[in-house]
Amino acid sequence: MTTVWLHVSTLMNWDRPPVGIVRVEREYCLWLLARAGQEGGETARFCIYDRQRKQFTEVSEAAVRARLQLPATAPLPPQPHGALARAELSGWKLRAKRAWQRTKPYLPDDWVPVIARSVRGLQHRMLQERDRMRARAARREYLQAQRQGEPHGPPPAAFERGDRWISLGADWEYLNSEALYRVKRELGLRVTLICYDTIPVLFPQLFVGVLSPGGFGSYLAELAWCADSVLCISECTRRDFESVMKRLGAPVPPTHVVTLGSEIRMGAAGGAPPGLAHGPDARPFVLYVSTIERRKNHEVLYRAWSRLRDQGIVPHRLVFVGMQGWGVNDLMNDLKLDPRTQDDIVCLNHVSDGELAWLYRHAAFTVFPSLYEGWGLPVVESLAWGKFCLASSAASLPEAGGPWAEYLDPWDLPAWVDRLGHYMRHPEEVRSRNDRIAREFRAPAWAQTAQAIHDVVLSAPPQE
Length: 464
What we know:
Blueprint lengths: L2 E5 L1 H5 L6 H16 L7 E8 L4 E5 L1 H7 L12 H24 L8 H36 L16 E4 L3 H4 L2 H11 L2 E6 L3 H4 L10 H14 L2 E4 L2 H14 L6 E3 L27 E5 L8 H13 L6 E5 L7 H9 L7 E4 L4 H10 L2 E4 L8 H8 L4 E4 L4 H5 L4 E3 L4 H13 L1 H14 L5 H14 L5
Parallel strand pairs: 1-2, 1-4, 4-5, 5-6, 6-7, 8-9, 8-11, 9-10, 11-12, 12-13
Antiparallel strand pairs: 2-3
Helix pairs in contact: 2-18, 4-5, 7-9, 9-10, 11-16
């Protein structure tokens, strides 16, 4: 019987809401576990690379199942200091409310909204810190449970000749390619790896101080030497990967394009996230789901909203969903201090899948102005929720959104101002586009993605 080893270092180390890479690894994991025990099926086993012991170690199926609930698909379990944080937050809110009621009558009228915004911002930051504390506590508890009964740590991964080995995570951070290549050559493992994009090589200016272009290029070259097959998440990514490999003088292993799924696993049903006003009288909002970093081009949206305000237009609210990344300190200061847009732009972090589903369901439409993408998962998620997306025309995004999205040059600020204003003024056009999406768009499922990945894993020929 064939044994499939899935490298889960990313999954086991991730303690934040899932991004695209984590979703791919998680969904294939869930699909493999759902097949466990089926007659004639493959045996699924799991491993991580232990940097301290300098070897691959096995992770039990039970540990993987437990990890899949933390924090990707369900709320984290309450922890003692998490409960303390909640109690402290509740007490702080009560004291702040009483102090505000006593002080407000004596403040100048123009001070009231400024202080109210500051208080809301402080409350939101405390909620974020509470969530981070919960995540760290859950991870410590998980690691402790994983090692119980194993005084010398988890056992080494017992690979056997001809086993299939696959990794779908952030391998430039969590995988030792040299160790994998050595084991592959010794035991004849059939290795399948994935390329999400080649952006640090193509656009190093977007990753200054974060990823070294040479370092990422070396990682891609090592990937090519290790892999018998390489998965790519779009035709654009496949073209880029093959081009970069030729430029680096590395081998070009067989490549296979797999389309990513789009459904969101909500765990428990979610409502509106904290910090976002909602209700029948609330302003409509436009949604952008993405890590806040330079490449994602949140800047063009901030400038577009500023222009709309300068033109005397009261725009929809703009909701950013994602953690803060690199290269955006000036932007975050602008969002905090610019009086034109302080009431327009909301930044949400640590949003649960249930809350994300609520946001997609209630958004007027979505935007995705990224400068470059390997695929564009939030564009497809938007369409899967029946919501029109105004997206960048760069790289793979037209491939992801097809004829159901509208595309603009990500650098063309006047075009973004014009089209955003147009759709805000003409909600009937947005409804018409949403109706077309509902009639024509068929959302890809993660089960289809997992099956396509698995087919490649089982068919991967040995590399000469």
